[in-house]
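U., I forgot to send this yesterday:
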Amino acid sequence: MKEAEKRQTGKRAVAYYRQSSGGDDVSLSIADQIIQCRNWASNNGVEILKEFSDFNTPGELYPNTPEARAFCNTDKSWQIWRKSRAFTKDYRRQLGELFQFLRFHSVDYVIVHERTRLYRSPNNSFLDGFITNELAEKGIAIVDVTSGKTDNLDDVIDIAVQKLLATYEMSKIDEKAAQSKRVRAEQKENGIYYSNAFGVKWVNKKITFPPEHRTALQMIFDGVANGWSYGKILHKLNTDFFHLRTTRNGKKAKCFYETNLYSILRNPVYCGYFLKNGEYTAITNMGSEPVLSLCRFMEICACVAERKKKNTKQKLNTPHPTHLLPLSGLLICGHCGKRLTAAQENGTVYFCKNTFLLKDKQCTPCRIRISSPQIPEDRLLTIQALFPLYLYHRNNNPDPGNKMQTLMHDIAGEIAGNRKALADMMELNFNGLLDTETFKWKAAELSGQIRQKENRLLELRSRAEDTATSRLRQHREEMEKIHYTGALLDPERYFLLARAAIREIAVFSDHIRITLFDENRFSLPRIPGKHRTKYLPQGHVQISQSPEGCKVTVTFETTSALPEKQKILLDTACYKVILKKR
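Result:
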């Protein structure tokens, strides 16, 4: 094909890359797959709209889409196969993103390095059928770059051959996995042990501990033996050994956590042993001296158990009051984006854990006090002033999922179907394909059904309007009662409305940024007060009703020098958020 002809094809595609969980020795790296797929697209004049890639992911997983998740629940063969696997992944995220992308974009091809990148179906599973059917319905072909073949998914024989090949490949993989398990079990009988624990490095199939990791591990075990708190040990790890942090997949983690400590302290590999049938068995493939002796490890395990028992006993015997935490999960650190953690310190305080884990000084000012014994409802009332915005939005935009709305939608669909059937019969009668007597009888029956359903639809619409008017009156009375008296809602009601009205509250040193339910944002200043406490301005709600509709205005009065800001949003429930200087 000439270059000019290639450019004129105008074909569009998406590319999908997947590297197997076994690593580069099982499949090409994603970088190599990208090069080959892009070369094919360039040589054939195809435009790649978007690329998707799953790393360290088995090909037997379904895409991460609602349809695929529902489908795999009925795939018994896949469910049996999934239970026999050791990994925790259930779906392929990026393959799901690919299918979501195809819903709103028209493409001609899905380009893969080879077909096994899309699926490797377990025996008798419907995974390959699900993926090919999804693409076939959209008229999308699969391009296998390795073989140079373009499969339009319209050849039943070819699809059956591909399924047989996939089944054969899966049988080989299952046989290899079973053989690996047998070999691993035999080696374990002889004391040969494999571990991917923190600080373990493989050298010539032997367990070794690099010097820096050994120092960190000794610090952890010695710290517990000397009575250090877990917080002190974590601080030491995240300051002196921060560069050693890794996840199970070998990627860099954000920092060390308490769960990392618990995993290390209960793992006997550091003393040269592993647990077998509840007994400690010596590891024969040790390539270096253990970090500590078995006797020392047992002593430290006893210390950990004693500490856990003491803390548990204290929690059981000491009554703890129930604290109101209605904003948990909504507050985030403005610096690092981490969810703020609640603590009780003369009231409720939220802080960023990176202040202690990473000693990040920029996260420290993002600490915010929500309530105190002196003014327990001060900040909560600031947030509560925003609830009427959501209530009026909900009133003017009824949930399409409620029963009445669903019933009205269904009846309207039935009326449209009956009218179409009537028009089709009229056309058949006009063309002489339907006799007049039969047409009159059928037309009278359909017309009667249409009249009955139209009357039913009018009745439901009238009831829906009455319900909306009643709900509006209810909301107005409720909000007048709450906001004009300045009373705080009960905890359960506050919790539900906070999550409905607000998406996120980002806390900064001098202000908070509130993201509302409709994705609009605005900021409120944090006003300095006594004892280094920063207050939030109080909100005043004004509700007005006119023939044009309802309007809700929330005004926050502040002494800050910030300029006045306002937002007028939504068409059905107009509202304002105003910052006003005193």
